[in-house]
Design brief:
Blueprint lengths: L1 H35 L14 H50 L7 H29 L6 E5 H18 L3 E6 L4 E5 H17 L6 E9 L2 E8 L6 H4 L10 H4 L9 H11 L3 E7 L3 E9 L4
Parallel strand pairs: 2-4
Antiparallel strand pairs: 1-3, 4-5, 5-7, 6-7
The chain binds adenosine-5'-diphosphate.
C-alpha cells in the first residue's frame, strides 16, 4: 500500500541520513580511543560535510599530532639524560676503581678529573631542576626596578678573569642608566648563560662585543662573539632542550644543551625576545629585545 511505501521510504531515508550523520561521529569516537591507547598515527580520516563535525575531527587530529610530538620529545629527553649521566659516572667509577686497585695514585691531576666530572654532574642536575621549574609552571618573577646597565657591567666584571685567561678581548658599549622592571636574578641568569656560551665557543685570542642601549623604551642587548659559530641547519633547533650542534659536541666544553632553553624562557617571561644569528667559523650574535615598560 502507498502508506507502507511511504513509511518504508521514511525509515530508509532517515536511517540513511542518520547513518550519514552518525558514521563520522563513530570514526571520531574511534579516533579518540586510538589516542587513548597512544596509537597516534592510526587516526582515520573523517569525511563529513557537517561543519562542526569537521572542526571536531580536525581538532582531535591536531591533538594526536601534538601528543605524538610530545611523546617523542619525552623519549628523546630520557635517552639524552641517561647518556649525559652515564659518561661522567663511568669516568668517576673507573678512576676510583683504579685508585682502589692501586693501579693509579690519586694525584692532583687524576683527582682533578674526578672532581671535574662531579662538577659536571652537579651542573647537569641543577640545570635539569631549573628546566623542570620553567616547564612546569609559569615562571614567577620577583619584580623590582632593575638597573640593567649596572647588572650587565657587574656580570661582565665577573667574567673578566676567564676572558683574560683565554686572551679574549672584550669590547663593550653600554648605555648608562638603562632600567627595567623585572626579576634581577633571572635577568642576570640570562646574561650569564649567554656570556658563558660566548666564552666557551670562542677560541683563544678571540673577541666578544657587548652592547646595551635603550632607544625610546626599546631595550636591546647584543652579545657577539668571534667563535666557532653555529651551522645554518642547527640554528632552528638551538633553543630546544639538549640540542647541541655537532661543532660543540666535538669540543670538550661539556655543555648540556639546556642553557639556551632556559634563557629563552626567562627572556619571554619578561615579554622579551631572543634571536640568534650565526655563521659557521665566523661567530655568533645573540640579540635580546626587552621593553622598558612591559609591566
Ligand atoms: P650548552 O650547554 O651545550 O652550551 P646551550 O643550550 O647553551 O647548551 O647551547 C646549545 C647549543 O647551541 C650549544 O651546544 C652550541 O652548539 C650552540 N651555541 C650556543 N651558543 C653558541 C655560541 N656563542 N657559539 C657557538 N655555538 C653556540
Amino acid at each position: 500500500s502507498p502508506s507502507t511505501c511511504i513509511t518504508t521510504f521514511a525509515i530508509l531515508t532517515s536511517s540513511n541520513i542518520s547513518k550519514k550523520f552518525l558514521n563520522p561521529i563513530y570514526i571520531i569516537k574511534e579516533n579518540a580511543k586510538l589516542i587513548e591507547k597512544g596509537k597516534y598515527n592510526k587516526i582515520k580520516e573523517v569525511k563529513t560535510n557537517t561543519y562542526e563535525l569537521n572542526e571536531l575531527s580536525l581538532t582531535i587530529k591536531e591533538l594526536a599530532i601534538k601528543l605524538d610530538e610530545q611523546e617523542s620529545l619525552r623519549k628523546r629527553m630520557s635517552t639524552d639524560i641517561a647518556h649525559e649521566l652515564r659518561t661522567p659516572i663511568a669516568t668517576i667509577q673507573s678512576h676510583i676503581e683504579a685508585f682502589m686497585d692501586g693501579v693509579w695514585q690519586p694525584d692532583v691531576e687524576k683527582l682533578g678529573i674526578v672532581h671535574g666530572e662531579i662538577t659536571r654532574l652537579t651542573n647537569l642536575i641543577k640545570e635539569l631542576s631549573d628546566l623542570s621549574i620553567i616547564e612546569s609552571d609559569e615562571i614567577v618573577l620577583n619584580k623590582s626596578l632593575v638597573h640593567l646597565s649596572h647588572l650587565l657591567e657587574k656580570t661582565l666584571l665577573s667574567f673578566e678573569p676567564l676572558f683574560m685567561n683565554k686572551g679574549i678581548h672584550l669590547y663593550k658599549k653600554i648605555q648608562n642608566d638603562v632600567q627595567i622592571i623585572g626579576d634581577e636574578t633571572l635577568l642576570q641568569r640570562v646574561f650569564i648563560n649567554i656570556l658563558t656560551n660566548a666564552y666557551k665557543y670562542t677560541n683563544d685570542n678571540g673577541t666578544i662585543k657587548v652592547n646595551l642601549d635603550n632607544i625610546d623604551g626599546h631595550i636591546r642587548i647584543i652579545i657577539e662573539d668571534s667563535g666557532i659559530g653555529i651551522p645554518q641547519e642547527d640554528l632552528k633547533y638551538i633553543f630546544e632542550r639538549f640540542y647541541r650542534s655537532d661543532l660543540s659536541r666535538n669540543r670538550v666544553t661539556g655543555g648540556t644543551g639546556i642553557g639556551l632553553t632556559i634563557t629563552k624562557a626567562l627572556v619571554e617571561a619578561h615579554n622579551g625576545q631572543i634571536t640568534i644569528e650565526s655563521q659557521e667559523g665566523k661567530g655568533t650574535k645573540v640579540i635580546i629585545e626587552l621593553n622598558e615598560k612591559f609591566l
